[in-house]
Design goal:
mainly alpha, about 55% helix, single chain, about 170 residues, 8 helices
Length: about 170
Amino acid sequence: MGMPWLEKHEHWIDWRDKGIGASRTAVSDRALVTDTNGLTSFERVIALIQNQAIVSNNSTCSQASVWFQLAVALDHFGNNGTGASLDRSQDLRGIGKGTADGYTDRDVQALKNLSVRYVRWPTVAERRKTFHEREAVGFAGCVGFIGGTTIPLTQNPVIDGECFFD
């Protein structure tokens, strides 16, 4: 008697086990945005977090590879971070909801640990420049843009909630 779920999803288990190298060959080189060291953004993030104890341990019960944990977390975020996206990870990657939750939590903590190195308040000159850039395109005094990405809210804010949409 076979294991129907495993038989039906064997290609994902194979993908998971082969690692990032296997998935990178499936994507054309033009589709990968690389930095000056030839790393994709994804690989650069892996390089930044891979030595943190939270995503990689030396216990007898080892964790999944850092690239796989990050792929699951990004898939979760790319689907609005909803419970449905955790079900998607379970279906696509052959992992449970609790495992997907754990990967996401650990990756968020690993990225948060990097914040002191990469996140800072803009200088007066940078704030002035941003203000004038936004003002020039009709968004004077607007706060909340992050690299052009909107942040989906599950509920309207209490103050001026009718002004928020996504």
